[in-house]
Amino acid sequence: MQNYSAYPHSHIGLDAHGLSNLKTVYWNLPTPALYEEALKSGEGIMAHLGPLVVRTGQFTGRSPNDKFIVDEPSTHDTIWWGNVNRPYPRDRFSEIQRRMASYLQGKDVFVQDCWCGADPEYRMPVRIVTQYAWHSLFARNMFIQATPDELAVHKPELVVIDCPGFHAFPDIDGTNTDVFILVDFSKGLVLIGGTEYAGEIKKSVFTAMNYGLPFADVLPMHCSANYGKEGDVALFFGLSGTGKTTLSADTNRTLIGDDEHGWSDSGIFNFEGGCYAKVIRLSREAEPEIYETTRRFGTILENVGINASTRRVNLDDASLTQNTRAAYPISHIANATRSGRGDHPKNIIFLTADAFGVLPPIARLTPEQTQYHFLSGYTAKVAGTERGVTEPQATFSACFGAPFMAQHPRVYAQLLGKRIKQHDVNCWLINTGWTGGPYGTGSRISIAHTRAMVTAALTGALDDVEFVKDPVFGVEAPKCCPGVPSEALRPRDTWADPAAYDEQARRLAEMFANNFVQFEDSVTAQVKAAGPVVR
């Protein structure tokens, strides 16, 4: 085994993970060296001003149906088994691990030894072993880099072996397809194969953090976070497309992180050292901070359109996917904190893109409503985003991130409720979806209006405003908000046909109720009653 040892690395070799007879092991290459290897191997091309543009083949997003968790005695009773976390036999895991190791013999591999978690008390040492140089750059961007002194004693607690060129045999291996993401918590090992989509790397590490942290009384969260000039922290929960990354990147506030955080007795800490933002139709005017990252050396652009002659990217090009992505170090955001940490939050915002056009654009939540909406995790898919979606479809993802929640949602909901009560946190529901009608009839709520509502909530501008209870959803909406027309705050008044609004609101309330049945045995009667009224 050869080692590209010009860079510091751990004393723990890859043979500890069953990998041997490799060609060259590239340890902890910095960004320029990874660019060189990626370009030399034809893994991507450099665009104007320096970003690395790559393609992920037919896999332009996560493969949730291809993720499995090894079912073994030490973790069996604490995993939320079901459609999200499907069991996988340990002997089959070992067999795929053996074949993957055999496949990698004689091949180059790239290793990044890094940290997940900005709080030294709760951070996890991770090792990412990849077949592609650009996947190694992705890991270097997304996780927290270890110093040379730390690398000398780095002992990974979680190892991810990422091998896009190795495919499973579904009939033999018991997988759904030739793609697989296999997680063994007891071994601290993740195997990824058959997919070039780099997002699987970070989400598998996130899943491991989600599983382990509650045992230490730390709440892991799928949310972005920032703080204001007074140090007041805000959390933004939301599924893809709701504005979580965009709204947390605010020139007037300091970014802590855009996607994954922990909440301990000491406050908030980012899991990551980078950001992974959707960039389809990104606007320099509306999202200036994120836009600038797409023009920087070190940024990876996944499936973004590019003119082969001029090497200029086209962020409006959705010919490959709506899920175009940028992966960049958080230092590319000028007003991001390098510490990755903040105080206990003063405000929590749940973001939903309601394509039915019936939820208020901003509403205040009681503690019970906060628990209800956290467990519901509602947003909506719109026509055209997926094959077969011809009208708005409600999507409920517990804790605003069910695919990454390895324990039962009640574990995370109870921790959230405990922290909110301890620190007297204000909670809000903000609809970044449609107004004046559903998708196809109404229009998307103005991002300028949404930013104004977020600002009003975070600065206390709504503290003395009169609120009105929504008759269907039970939440309280303000009668006025600085920078927002008052009529826009009352969704029913924006519809040409109020009766059509009433019917659509009734339908959505029914969907909430049907989804929440699965959690009724896990919550108090007060939380159960905090949902919409079904008539």
Question: Features of this protein?
Answer:
535 residues, Phosphoenolpyruvate Carboxykinase, domain 3, 32 strands, globular, Phosphoenolpyruvate Carboxykinase, domain 1, nine-stranded mixed beta sheet, 24% helix, alpha/beta, 13 helices, ten-stranded mixed beta sheet, Phosphoenolpyruvate Carboxykinase, domain 2
Describe the structure.
Helix 1 runs antiparallel to helix 3 and helix 9 (367-376) packs antiparallel against helix 10 (409-423). Strands 1, 2, 5, 6, 7, 8, 9, 10, 11 and 12 form a 10-stranded mixed β-sheet that branches. Strands 13, 14, 15, 16, 17, 23, 24, 25 and 28 form a 9-stranded mixed β-sheet that branches. A 5-stranded mixed β-sheet has the order 3-4-19-22-18, with helices on one face. It has 3 domains: 2-44 and 63-216, 3-Layer(aba) Sandwich (Phosphoenolpyruvate Carboxykinase, domain 1); 276-332, Phosphoenolpyruvate Carboxykinase, domain 2, CATH 2.170.8.10; 344-528, Alpha-Beta Complex (Phosphoenolpyruvate Carboxykinase, domain 3). It contains 13 helices and 32 strands. The N and C termini lie far apart (69 Å). It has 535 residues and is α/β, with parallel strands linked by helices.
Radius of gyration: 23 Å
CATH class of the largest domain: Alpha Beta
For the record, the CATH architecture of the largest domain stands as: 3-Layer(aba) Sandwich
What is the overall number of helices?
A: 13
Q: Structural class given helices, strands, pairing?
A: alpha/beta
Write the layout of secondary structure elements.
Blueprint: E1 2-4, E2 24-27, H1 31-40, E3 44-46, E4 52-54, E5 67-70, E6 86-88, H2 90-104, E7 109-116, E8 124-130, H3 133-142, E9 144-145, H4 148-152, E10 158-163, H5 170-173, E11 180-184, E12 189-193, H6 199-212, E13 219-227, E14 233-237, H7 244-248, E15 254-257, E16 260-264, E17 267-270, E18 274-278, H8 288-293, E19 300-302, E20 305-306, E21 313-314, E22 325-329, E23 341-342, E24 345-352, E25 362-365, H9 367-376, E26 378-381, E27 393-396, H10 409-423, E28 426-431, E29 434-435, E30 443-444, H11 447-459, E31 467-469, E32 476-478, H12 498-516, H13 525-528
